[in-house]
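Researcher: Go.
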Amino acid sequence: MSRVGVSSKREYWRLRTAQWRKTNPEKWKIIQERYRKAHPERMVESYKMSYRKHREKRLVAAKKYRDDGHHRKNRTGHSPQYFSEQLAKQNSRCAICKKLVSGKGAHADHNHLSKKPRGVLCLSCNMGIGLFHEDVDMLLAAVAYLRKWDLIAKEIAI
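Model: Structure:
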């Protein structure tokens, strides 16, 4: 690379380095990894500066993504239309406890193995199923446990 047409030494070396990076991507990756390991505090600061610089742009993009309903389709298999239809079929109620759900209180339930959508739940029911790892036997054991202690409580009250 010649220095013809370059305004300064600094500009020349910047262009030359950029050209080297393009022609040696594997070596450049190794150099970057070594630097990141040697200077983790600088990397954290760099990430923070980048976040602050692009914060508004990221927030706008994230809001648009959520508002379009794409996050739900990607995570649960529910398209925005399917979600709305399912919620209407359930009369805006949780499929388990029948509490009224709307907006952020409505959660798309799906099978984590097949990724197929199941229905719309309230946060409590959705978390309950998740905490039991969708294991029917564990849920039945929990029901039996609650019934057992409900009977004991009734006997004590008598």
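Model: The chain has a mean pLDDT of 88.
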